[in-house]
Amino acid sequence: MLDFTVRASDFRVLPTFEWSPSGVCLLTGANGAGKTTALNVLKLLGALFRRGHESALSAIGGGVAFRRWESPDESPVEFEVRVGRVRWKLRFPMSDVGLKGTYGEELHRDGDVVLRAGMFQDWWSLGTERMPIDGARCCARVLWDRGDAEWMRPLVELVESVRVYESYWLNRVKRPEAVAPTHSFLHQTGSNLWSVLSNWKSAPLRHGDRFEWVQRQARRAFPDIMGSIEFDRGVPYLFRPGAHDPAAGLLPDRAADGLLTGLLHLTAVAGAPDGGIVAFDEVENHLHPHAIRSLIDAMRQQAEARGLTVVVTTHSPVVLNEFKDHEDRVFVVDPTAEVTPRALDEVHDPAWLSHFALGDLYEREQFAAPRRGQS
Amino acid sequence: MPGRPFRGFTSARLPPPPEAEVLPTQLDKIVSRVIALVDPLVGEGWHQVCVVDDLELVNRDQPDVVLRVAREAFERALWRLHRRDPRRAALIRGALRRKASVHVIRPMVEAWFFGAPSIFQRDGVRFDARFHIVGGDPEAFESTDRDYIAATEAQCPEWCLRRRKRGDRPKWLGADRVHHPKGYLQWLMRDGAHKACTAYDEAHGGAEALAGLDWAALLDGPRDAPFARALVEDIADGLGQPPALAAWAGITAPETSVKCLPCWPVLRNL
């Protein structure tokens, strides 16, 4: 994938968010600093292009408190994606309770405006053409669907590849419904985990070695409890290492939460399209430090081999320690900064950082610490 | 004895910054691990524990400072233990003195590979038997390879495409590349398609090369690799096998030699 930059202004707690992640990146910050908001920028852009603005707003929890409360009433919330020669800009006129009217949109190619829709307008322009707003699709999507704008491909591949995993529905994972034959990547709730794994396992020509990779990495991360996964008439069974008795398989509701979370993370990464973006909020939940280390390593392998961008947020010193020697891929979100996030090796001198474990520095509030009230 | 990797403590210039008084450093973690290994009450009963770290370019000129910092870290840890449990601290002090040592490689382990270059043939390095090392001692590595010294970013298109991520920056683009054996090895194994423009992988290929190192070739000359010789001397002494070193007799680095101890040693060699 080409390098890309996402930008957002006055979105929730973030005054200006501007970021160009690549490889496996970590976002950290105090509670309420805007880490999840940053992931929501990605989620919003992906959902908007795929399914339109109503679905996009719904995906990030609605339009309430969408605009940063310190920003002026008339100031729109802006988003922008730059990838290669393409720039996509969005402007949302927001009140405290939601969208006030039609949002604005611009698409640039090599610096030239190709399409433009003004805020509150019910039409948009494409060169000399004037077209009515499509309530279900953004203008960029309408243009792409016409099939004569191949130059948009880098943007389309980028926004369509975005997958953000905030919190899995473990109860659904533990009590799976019947395997659905069409699922080939993980839903954001993780509830189709077993369908995805079953489909990968049953069709290796179509899905490559994804199933084997997930199983292999899960064995590394959970060496005491993970042996193999088998499906019997669509029902998943988890076997411990060395198990030979077919009756020894555990149904998912008896599996450890950590193991299920690990399988979900791995399946999300393995299912991402080449060059895609996968994000995990608080990636450490339920996981033992050994599992965290193995999973981060597995993510790096996939990111390197397939050009993925993997974004994780965390409050875990263990996760932070895994970014030692990768300080340029640790980003600190600070909603009081003019522009956020900043790479850790810009916040602190890399030579100074090298003396310490990042987890210790975080724990001792040497970066990404809460701002104390000033009297 | 199996090796266990750890995060080094020498990648920035030592001594550590003042914050190290209140924040645990990478070195403090190493010290804790060593103490845990040799602790006669709860340790794993290891016969000998050698910490080996690169000096890196930033500390290449001051092994004395690096080793003083290491020694002080052990002393601090022992003092903290003493305040909590003097009896146990005394036991650990004795165990450290008998079993533990700290060694350094000047400037980094890849220097040893240039002292025993047969390893390159095995790994298929583009290395046409020309030595570009001044002085013969690999621990005083200095490349005179003009192509290497003149290398530019243009020779690493993949890294440039990746927006010049600092972490992936080829060492052979560094300012002090002349003294950088890892940078030179990366250069010799350069691969434009790789994100860091080299096929050399320290964690895997480097570890394999170290495991297959021809120590006899490395320590062939009596003045070659004095820090490596001090390590071999220490291990041979610990195992009670001094004849192993006799074949490679030569100068050992006084900073880390078990034969050049201070008045009140804390470790086998410091």
Fold and architecture overview:
The complex is a heterodimer of chains A (375) and B (270). With 375 residues, chain A is an alpha+beta fold. Helix content of chain A is 33%, strand content 22%. Chain A contains 14 helices and 16 strands. Chain A has helices at 35-51, 53-59, 139-146, 153-161, 170-174, 193-202, 204-207, 210-221, 257-271, 289-306, 317-321, 344-347, 350-353, 358-363, and strands at 4-11, 14-19, 23-28, 77-83, 86-92, 104-109, 112-117, 123-126, 129-132, 163-165, 228-232, 235-239, 277-280, 309-313, 330-332, 342-343. In chain A, the strands form 3 sheets. Chain A has an 8-stranded antiparallel sheet, covered by helices on one side. A 6-stranded mixed sheet of chain A has the order 10-13-14-3-15-16, with helices on both faces. Chain B is mainly α and 270 residues long. Chain B has 2 domains: 1-109 and 214-270, no CATH class; 117-212, no CATH class. Chain B contains 12 helices and 2 strands. Chain B has helices at residues 26-38, 63-84, 86-99, 110-115, 118-122, 146-149, 157-161, 181-188, 202-211, 215-218, 226-238, 243-246, and strands spanning 49-54, 100-105. A two-stranded parallel sheet of chain B has the order 1-2. In chain B, helix 2 packs antiparallel against helix 3. The longest helix of chain B is centred in the first third of the chain and has 22 residues, at 63-84. The radius of gyration of chain B is 20 Å and the shape is globular. The model of chain B has no long low-confidence stretch (mean pLDDT 86). The A-B interface holds A 3, 20, 22-23, 304, 324-329, 345, 350-352, 354-357, 360-361, 364, 366 and B 7, 9, 11-13, 16-17, 19-20, 22-27, 29, 58, 162-163, 165-167, 195.
What's the gist of this structure?
Chain A has 375 residues and is α+β, with helices and mostly antiparallel strands. Chain A has helices at residues 35-51, 53-59, 139-146, 153-161, 170-174, 193-202, 204-207, 210-221, 257-271, 289-306, 317-321, 344-347, 350-353, 358-363; strands at residues 4-11, 14-19, 23-28, 77-83, 86-92, 104-109, 112-117, 123-126, 129-132, 163-165, 228-232, 235-239, 277-280, 309-313, 330-332, 342-343. Chain A starts with a strand and ends in a 12-residue tail after the last helix.
